[in-house]
Write a structure and sequence with these properties.
Length: 215
């Protein structure tokens, strides 16, 4: 049973990645398709939570409204993260990232991280009296596990900041320069620089955080 639940968790985390940076993926997919995928993922995540919490009928009537409110506020944080990823990808691929821009992106990423931590603290209090403390903690652990899996994927796909010769944004890159760049940085780009993905601390060089729980 434990292995089956872990497989379900891994599968859902794989699908949740696009949600965190939906603003990026929306460029390549029709809005209707993204909406369908988003609804499907939300339903599957809710099922996973239900299976792992074992709520009574009385607990369910009080827990799910709190859960939905949490997801709504979490989505706003996910949108911030998606925009940060999109901005980093644009600067990285265009080779226009400056020290100032890099610091700004990191500041925004940390702000999103702090906002999420504050949100978890807020809802831990809200869950007090709604479900037993053990179930409240288990719920937040599930959110953490889902996010940790997402962050692992992001850490593998988002390239580290590099000090590369910046190019004038008004000039086109020659075919020779583009070919050289692909040779030097192809591996990191194939891992996701061009598709910065979507849900782990979403900034260059980040690794999976045990306490992350955006999903």
């Amino acid at each position: 049973m434990a292995k089956q639940k872990m497989r379900s968790l891994s599968w859902i985390s794989f699908l949740l990645v696009p949600l965190v940076s939906a603003s990026v993926l929306a460029q390549d997919a029709p809005a209707s398709n993204m909406d369908i995928l988003r609804d499907k993922i939300k339903a599957d995540k809710k099922l996973l939570i239900a299976e792992n919490l074992g709520l009574t009928e009385s607990e369910s009537s009080k827990f799910w409204p709190v859960y939905e409110a949490y997801q709504k506020e979490l989505e706003a944080i996910n949108q911030r993260i998606g925009k940060t990823i999109e901005s980093y990808a644009a600067e990285y691929n265009a080779r226009t990232l400056t020290d100032e821009k890099a610091k700004t992106l990191m500041t925004e990423a940390l702000a999103a991280e702090e906002a999420e931590l504050a949100l978890k603290k807020k809802y831990l209090e809200k869950l007090d009296g709604v479900v037993p403390a053990m179930k409240a903690v288990r719920y937040l652990q599930l959110e953490n596990k889902i996010r940790a899996l997402i962050e692992f994927d992001l850490a593998a796909n988002i390239p580290l900041v590099e000090e590369r010769p910046r190019v004038d944004a008004t000039k086109e890159i020659s075919d020779e320069e583009r070919q050289t760049d692909e040779i030097n940085h192809g591996s990191s780009r194939h891992r996701g620089a061009g598709r910065p993905g979507a849900g782990a601390r979403i900034y260059p060089g980040s690794g999976p955080g045990a306490g992350a729980s955006r999903a």
